[in-house]
Automatic annotation (TrEMBL):
<dbReference type="Pfam" id="PF01063">
    <property type="entry name" value="Aminotran_4"/>
</dbReference>
<dbReference type="InterPro" id="IPR036038">
    <property type="entry name" value="Aminotransferase-like"/>
</dbReference>
<dbReference type="GO" id="GO:0052656">
    <property type="term" value="F:L-isoleucine-2-oxoglutarate transaminase activity"/>
</dbReference>
<dbReference type="InterPro" id="IPR043132">
    <property type="entry name" value="BCAT-like_C"/>
</dbReference>
<dbReference type="GO" id="GO:0052655">
    <property type="term" value="F:L-valine-2-oxoglutarate transaminase activity"/>
</dbReference>
<dbReference type="InterPro" id="IPR033939">
    <property type="entry name" value="BCAT_family"/>
</dbReference>
<comment type="pathway">
    <text>Amino-acid biosynthesis; L-isoleucine biosynthesis; L-isoleucine from 2-oxobutanoate: step 4/4.</text>
</comment>
<dbReference type="InterPro" id="IPR018300">
    <property type="entry name" value="Aminotrans_IV_CS"/>
</dbReference>
<dbReference type="GO" id="GO:0009097">
    <property type="term" value="P:isoleucine biosynthetic process"/>
</dbReference>
<dbReference type="GO" id="GO:0009099">
    <property type="term" value="P:L-valine biosynthetic process"/>
</dbReference>
<keyword id="KW-0100">Branched-chain amino acid biosynthesis</keyword>
<comment type="pathway">
    <text>Amino-acid biosynthesis; L-leucine biosynthesis; L-leucine from 3-methyl-2-oxobutanoate: step 4/4.</text>
</comment>
<comment type="similarity">
    <text>Belongs to the class-IV pyridoxal-phosphate-dependent aminotransferase family.</text>
</comment>
<dbReference type="GO" id="GO:0052654">
    <property type="term" value="F:L-leucine-2-oxoglutarate transaminase activity"/>
</dbReference>
<keyword id="KW-0808">Transferase</keyword>
<dbReference type="GO" id="GO:0009098">
    <property type="term" value="P:L-leucine biosynthetic process"/>
</dbReference>
<dbReference type="InterPro" id="IPR043131">
    <property type="entry name" value="BCAT-like_N"/>
</dbReference>
């Protein structure tokens, strides 16, 4: 994306904003969206903020058939002072390019994409909900638009950013969830696309989630795709365990998606002088730690929930409860600190917050 101006075409009508208590996740969208188009000859052109509306695409567009697409997810918050705040947004743009690289899609200009996001946020600032725990979810994504049924990288793409006001993930306060350890299906394997935020990974995860839902579990715990022995992720979150005072998260192994929340938590723990280590951890080890009373806390991490405490695991019909099914102290401390940095109410030692206006 060479630096070009962004054209703004404002919507003639304004959509109705949902009430804070009615906000869900990803159902309602703001009045505007950002679009840029790419073709091999010209690179990125036609950067524009336009009214939110359905797209017209050729039915043969490669994205529909072979899933050549990537996405990102981050949030904007309104600070007490009325400023728009983002959390490490440059990390999302960088990861988007890493995903693009894996899917043979063109790179975006990360700085320009961030600038485009800021302009879009200013146009739709009214849509950022104010109630505690609410935010504006930001979904940048890229799709392959060339009409072609051959299996090959597209020569045409569209990059877009859409925005959706979302409610608090924890309407009744932060609470632990029950997890089903998945022994049949896998999310990703080394050498596959697990490290990229690409649609196919999420399509591939639906079946296991459906089974977990039916059994009354809220998420699945994914094991490695080769031996089904080592822990990888929980749902579409990274996962952490506190065992004997030490915090452990599975090391990046070529199939785990590197979360920005994960990265931030590792940095925070180091800053607090709490031992944290990235290494392989097996279900067998977790079971043993639980049996010995050494498993103190477990939690998932990601943009949507920030911290999602785990209260129970079911592994091959054996259940083990963590911390009496209650939210652990460290989980709570991490949640409060991260959400405080995001909304601008607690000290931000790493300057992760970015104010837009
Ligand atoms: C997005 C995502 C995460 C979490 O990433 P964050 O940057 O922390 O939101 C973890 N695992 C998967 C599979 C993901 O798609």
């Amino acid at each position: 994306m060479t630096v070009q101006t962004i054209e703004v075409k404002l919507s003639e009508s304004k959509g109705e904003k949902p009430l804070a208590e009615e906000l869900q996740f990803g159902r309602v969208f703001t009045d505007h969206m950002f679009i840029a188009d790419y073709c091999e000859e010209k690179g990125w052109t036609d950067h524009r903020v336009v009214p939110y509306e359905p797209l017209t695409l050729d039915p043969a567009a490669i994205v529909f058939h072979y899933g050549q697409t990537v996405f990102e997810g981050l949030k904007a918050y309104l600070s007490k002072e009325g400023k728009i705040r983002l959390f490490r947004p440059e990390q999302n743009m960088r990861r988007m390019n890493q995903s693009c690289e894996r899917l043979c899609m063109p790179q975006i200009d990360e700085e320009f994409a961030l600038e485009a996001l800021k302009q879009l946020l200013i146009v739709d600032k009214d849509w950022i909900p104010k109630a505690e725990g609410t935010s504006l979810y930001i979904r940048p994504f890229m799709i392959a638009t060339e009409p072609y049924l051959g299996v090959a990288p597209s020569t045409k793409y569209r990059f877009m950013i859409i925005l959706s006001p979302v409610g608090s993930y924890y309407k009744e306060g932060i609470h632990p969830v029950k997890i089903l350890v998945e022994n049949e299906y896998v999310r990703a394997v080394d050498g596959g696309t697990g490290t990229a935020k690409t649609a196919g990974n999420y399509a591939a995860s639906l079946k296991a989630q459906e089974v977990a839902d039916q059994k009354g579990y809220s998420q699945v715990l994914w094991l490695d795709g080769v031996e089904k022995k080592y822990i990888e992720e929980v749902g579409s979150m990274n996962v952490f365990f506190k065992i004997n005072g030490e915090v452990i998260t599975p090391e990046l192994n070529g199939s785990i998606l590197e979360g920005i929340t994960r990265k931030s938590i590792i940095q925070l723990l180091k800053h607090w002088n709490i031992p944290v280590i990235e290494r392989k951890i097996s279900m067998e080890e977790l079971k043993e730690a639980h049996a010995n009373g050494a498993l103190e806390e477990a939690f998932g991490t990601g943009t949507a929930a920030v911290i999602s405490p785990i209260g129970e695991f079911n592994w091959q019909d054996e259940k083990f409860v963590v911390n009496e099914g209650k939210t652990g102290e460290l989980s709570k401390q991490l949640y409060d600190t991260l959400t405080g940095i995001q909304t601008g109410t607690v000290e931000d030692p790493f300057n992760w917050g970015v104010e837009v206006n």
